[in-house]
Amino acid sequence: MARRRRIRHVTLVSLLLLLLTVAIAPTPSSAAGSDWWEPVARAEADVRTGVTGEPFTGTDARGEVRGFVDAHNHLFSNEAFGGRLICGKVFSAAGVADALADCPEHYPDGSLALFDYITHGGDGKHDPTGWPTFKDWPAYDSMTHQANYYAWVERAWRGGQRVLVNDLVTNGMICSVYPFKVRSCDEMTSIRLQARLTYDLQAFIDTQYGGPGKGWFRIVTDSAQARQVVEQGKLAVVLGVETSEPFGCKQILDIAQCGKADIDKGLDELYALGVRSMFLCHKFDNALCGVRFDEGGLGTAINVGQFLSTGTFWQTETCKGPQADNPIGTAASAAEGDLPAGVRVPAYDSGARCNVRGLTDLGEYAVRGMMQRKMMLEVDHMSVKATGQALDIFEAASYPGVLSSHSWMDLNWTERVYSLGGFVAQYMHGSEAFTAEAARTRALRTAYGVGYGFGTDFNGIGDHPAPRGADAADRVVYPFRSADGGSVVDRQTSGQRTFDLNTDGAAHVGMIPDWIEDIRRVGGQGVVDDLFRGAESYLGTWGSTEGHRAAVDLAKGAAATASSTESNPFTSYRAGRAVDGDRATRWASDWSDDQWWQVDLGSTHRVARVTLDWERAYGRSYRVELSTDGVNWSTAWSTTTGDGGLDTARFTGTPARYLRVHGLQRGTAWGYSLNEVTVHSS
């Protein structure tokens, strides 16, 4: 019996771990300290960058900043999941030997490195010694060892990176079942700690460079500050959040475990911590939105986890557009042994690729709350349905704050993101795969005049580019020049080990410059040029988000009429309810096709954008018509494929005093029903 309980426990641990797969106090150093980019006080025993030459500063001939963007990294996830899933620290006041040490349970031979064992098979054994030998870690395919040591981050900066998004990350359920832990499993407690440690790291580096504000690692809380940091040649660090139950917004049996007050309180706290971007859902459906599925056996395991966490399995439906979620994995998984007796993972129709769960009412409230605070929304990991609804909300308000940071968004959304002014980055695939994927969307980047980013997801946790071999014809040749041409990058040495991308792959974050050189040799200078414009594009999205102002609604409170009004003895569905500024009220028509709703703007205005917030009874075929006298009408916009939700009609600005929504065909058996209609000049 004891053995049976142990096997069951390890199986549950396996499930939750699979879910994730989806310097001593400074002393005078030998550095002369005459160059601003070199420390004036650093421990003699520490990792060195292997990069020489002055980092580039200023802007280009067009006045734009330059540099690479890592849009998705997790500096301090070693403090997440109970604090012992990822071994080693980003920095330590006690020195590199303390920072880059393996977890105690990994000694003497790595037998209890459960995560590596589960995700990569074999026996999980490895040499646990970190500094100074690093025989077996860090490695491109190791899931349990620190890859973001501060000096490796420094090398990435010296090699041309100018923006780093540090996503504060954790998962309370994984923490609760992982057998080794030294930290609380409360998600917000972990996020607070990771935010504080990011500021502590900034102070640690500042001390090496002579005092507050002098280091190269600068946490920024607005785009102007970030732009100034990049112009100085330093690294702008942005705080984000990627967690499964933000604000405690778990759902159990489809019942939300949070409310609007929790969302407001949570957003306010995150903003005060310096967080400016975040995900609303990740891996498990929560009270805010549905997720994009995982594939293969991993998908089966995560679906089991979905059930254990929420009481419900994923549910699918036929997709309504070209976008689709990943097919749910149907391969057998040991995780199925953790299901209650008689419970089985459902079978799924291969033609039904979309999560039925989109953006919930609470999720929409959170999205609008982020807009009010000028925060940027990460749409990766959101279901196709949820992503589409979020983009509808942003388009209705012309809000640019949308990010896709690591290849977890259907590429068919790319143009909608760019048209809003958003930013897109690709996961840190190997140079050949990265180049191929970049080519698929390059025409859009050219059309919209934007740069590109990458999301390394170091400590995130996922594999990283494998070595292509020292005999590859287009291998990286050391030393090489940085992308700007001003620095020389040689092999990186940590203690007794020297790393070479050709033979070690992207073992840690310091290999970013080497990986970019590999991209140049494999895919050409064009891909690197797009990446080098990443900083300008990311800061452009952020600045536009901060500068967004809600457009004046010309229709709010105006006089409205309609061809009919649904009769109800308990509430009014009169036409004016669609322009009262309250989305909880609505106009509803009789149950027949040919109906209209009309508003008098009071005087003639230039009208160029109309947003219709449909209730469940929506119009499939309808026209937006304009008139200056209320008698003669012209069609400004029309559709025959309306699908409800938010519809935003954009057209050439036209003088009009009257606007009419003319329904031609209903989308349901009921009539037409509008929660709110907004009318704008731009």
Automatic annotation (TrEMBL):
Superkingdom, natural source: Bacteria
One Pfam family, short name: F5_F8_type_C_2
Keywords: Signal
Stored InterPro entries: FA58C, Galactose-bd-like_sf, Metal_Hydrolase
Coiled coil: none
Endpoints of the signal sequence: 1-31
Domain called F5/8 type C: residue spans: 547-682
PROSITE patterns, alphabetized: FA58C_3
Protein name in UniProt: F5/8 type C domain-containing protein
